[in-house]
Design a protein that fits this description.
40% of the residues lie in helices and 13% in strands. With 455 residues, the chain is of the alpha/beta class. The chain has a 5-stranded parallel sheet with strand order 1-2-3-4-5. Strands 8-9-10-11 form a 4-stranded parallel sheet, sandwiched between helices. Helix 5 links the parallel strand 4 and strand 5. The longest helix has 25 residues. The termini are far apart.
């Protein structure tokens, strides 16, 4: 017999994610606004440049964060010509730094406005590394004057003038720890651990089939400069189109900021009513214009939309939200720390405003739906129909109100700030008293607890 000769792989680089992104294309995904890939594991090869281009070409990526050390900018330009923000991971090799800042490098990205350089200190001394980085910044200012460059130094580097380090030092003084955020972060961890340890081989797959995690349908809206040119305001026309597109997509929850212009306002209010009639849960942020806030539209177009205001760590609405009587609920929105991504070393981003609070409100609604789905999955046969009925009902505006009301509120917020730690936090406390294979039941228990008032 002749021995079969196995084909030799053409290059050692990985190509796994080509398949993943092709699957997304096959499911109709046309745009990926932000991509983050950890591709610098010292124990396994990175993806080849060719594979990266194949994976993301034509996907309209705007925020590029593919963590492959010394990645060629030609790959980025070919795969994401419309990138507005690019993260570069640098090994310390000055030849790479020069290539990025020459005419054939980042200058070929026409939409670019922000570069974040993640620095590793390699063979050169700190003094030489700093000199090379300064030269890179100088070349970028000359070649791409409209592009901002931010630096992320390694933790061992104590460069006092660095923007990121200074910001990290400021964080403890200027951020407020939100018990709400900490509680829900812990509950999220509980869910992931419980799913991973569910005791049957196809268990997690079945759970995801029954109870998928939230899928985001993100639409970019048209915006116009404000009168003073300081901000961009979304238009009512594009908001109306986005809501109708979401209805067609069959979404369950819509989160939207209020447009600042009154033009084509009626069309937006009509779209909101259409979404309400489709039993889509809608959350709209307050306008954040102070005490003389008029009722926010599109919130006033129908009674079936939540108006959400930003709250500080005590639960009280912040001053710029204005008339608290117009609010349905308040959620954290004052100096909130946002995780900057998996395995990221940068300090958390600090965000403010009712739009932040509104995103959290929509996320809580999605989590409630998820907990009830887990309840359906784990329920005994005699209880499944009751759980299914609860899930069907809670997707209606008046019933999700009852689910929210099943969570205690704080007096300081005029009973508009939900004390999630009284429901979700108690399950976290119970976690250590249950075997790992039984912890998923804690998620189902939350679903049951929040359904008490909706039958």
């Amino acid at each position: 017999m002749r021995n079969q000769i196995k084909p030799v792989p053409d290059g050692a680089g990985r190509s796994d994610l080509v398949y993943i992104f092709n699957q997304l294309r096959n499911k109709g995904v046309e745009t990926i606004l932000r991509v983050f890939v950890q591709d610098s594991d010292p124990d396994s090869p990175s993806h080849s440049d060719e594979a990266i281009e194949k994976a993301l070409q034509g996907m309209g990526v705007e925020v590029w964060d593919w963590n492959k050390t010394d990645l060629c900018t030609e790959v980025i330009v070919n795969a994401a010509p419309g990138a507005r923000e690019v993260h570069l991971y640098w090994s310390g090799n000055n030849a790479v730094l020069r290539g990025w800042s020459e005419s054939g490098g980042l200058a070929k990205a026409p939409e670019l406005w922000l570069v974040k350089l993640h620095i590793q200190e390699g063979l050169e001394s700190s003094t030489i590394t700093e000199h090379n980085v300064n030269e890179f910044q100088t070349r970028m200012r000359e070649l791409c004057p409209n592009v901002e460059v931010e630096l992320e130094w390694p933790n061992t580097h104590r460069r006092r003038t660095d923007k990121t380090t200074a910001r990290a030092e400021e964080v403890p003084e200027h951020t407020t720890k939100h018990e709400w955020i900490q509680c829900m972060t812990e509950f999220k961890r509980l869910i992931f651990e419980a799913e991973a340890n569910y005791p049957m081989a196809p268990g997690t797959k079945n759970i995801h089939l029954m109870c998928p995690h939230a899928s985001l349908f993100i639409l970019r809206l048209e915006d116009t400069p404000s009168e003073d040119g300081a901000k961009l305001n979304i238009t009512a026309r594009s908001a109306a189109k986005a809501i109708r597109a979401a209805i067609v997509q069959g979404v369950q929850i819509i989160s939207i900021d209020p447009p600042k212009d009154d033009r084509e306002r009626q069309d937006l209010e009509n779209a909101v009513v259409e979404a309400a009639n489709a039993n889509i849960l809608m959350f709209c942020s307050a306008r954040d214009k102070g005490a003389h806030n008029a009722p926010t539209y599109p919130s006033k177009a129908t009674g079936k939309i939540f108006t959400i205001g930003a709250a500080n760590s005590s639960g009280a609405s912040v001053d710029y939200v204005g008339n608290a009587s117009e609010l349905s609920y308040t959620f954290p929105g004052d100096k909130v720390e946002v995780d900057s991504g998996p395995r990221r070393r940068t300090c958390p981003e600090i965000v403010d405003g009712s739009s932040v609070a509104t995103a959290l409100a929509a996320g809580l609604a999605a989590l409630i739906l998820y907990c009830i789905q887990v309840r359906i999955f784990l329920a005994k046969d005699s209880e499944k129909q009751k759980a299914r009925n609860a899930y069907r009902k809670v997707k209606q505006h008046d019933r999700i109100v009852k689910a929210f009301d099943a969570i205690e509120t704080t007096k300081k917020s005029n009973h508009k700030f939900l004390k999630v730690w009284e429901v979700f936090g108690k399950r976290i406390e119970q976690k250590d008293h249950k075997p790992q294979e039984e912890r998923l039941q804690l998620t189902a228990d939350v679903g049951a607890r929040l359904c008490v008032k909706i039958y």
